Amino acid sequence: MTSAAYNVSSYNNLVVDFYFYATSMENGEDFSLSYFNGSTWVVVANYVAGSSFNNNGFYHATVPISGVVFPTNAQFRFTCDASDNTDLVYIDQVVVTGSNTPGQSLGDQPSPTCELLSFTRTGLDADENRTYLLLYPNPVTNSLTVQTAEEVETLRIYGANGAVVKQFNNVKNGSSLDVSALKPGMYIAAFTTDEGIITRMFIKK
């Protein structure tokens, strides 16, 4: 996936922030983020299955870029290097932020980070957290099953553009939610409960 060209010449620091979810990637297979500096592509972050990430988990990644002169036609590109077309990496919520805070040299800049997201509720022990509020299967093809100990007033599903694409009311433990009409991609399910709004991410195949 390659972005459009952006004029970032007025900045001295960039940060690329994104979320990803991988399926069927064998250990050693990888994907990378590259940056076009106006003349050539440069790999700025590389993520390897089995060491940087594991399949079937949601990850948050942050990639700082500094210590270079930024061009008027910068681009960003994600490339998956795997063995066949069933090895997939879903990437969503890509945000590029520019700033003019004092930066480091290219060799001293902070390293890219990659963090597994754990959706847990504070104040519960490990067993309670596992069963507190779940959506499965994930990725999903036709219907999601809800496992919850909460009274869910409404469940809104948001697409990548932030728009509500589906809504369910009075969701109970064991409810089956028809999501077969959704397009393939990453979605956020927002549960409105007595405790507030609780979110979960899922992939539609």
What does this structure look like?
A hairpin with a 4-residue loop joins β2 and β3. A four-stranded antiparallel beta sheet has the order 6-1-4-7, with no helix packed on it. Strands 11-10-13-14 form a four-stranded antiparallel beta sheet, with no helix packed on it. A three-stranded antiparallel beta sheet has the order 3-2-5, with no helix packed on it. It has one helix and 14 strands, in the order βββββββαβββββββ. The chain is globular and about 55 Å long. 3% of the residues lie in helices and 51% in strands. The chain is mainly beta and 205 residues long. The chain starts with 12 loop residues before the first strand and ends with a strand.
Rounded to the nearest angstrom, the distance between the terminal CA atoms is 18 Å
Mean pLDDT: 84
Q: Give the quaternary arrangement of the chains.
A: single chain
| Uncertain stretches of 5 or more adjacent residues | 119-131
Order of helices and strands: EEEEEEEHEEEEEEE
**What is the number of helices?**
1
Strand order across the biggest sheet? 6-1-4-7
Radius of gyration: 19 Å
Structural class comes to mainly beta
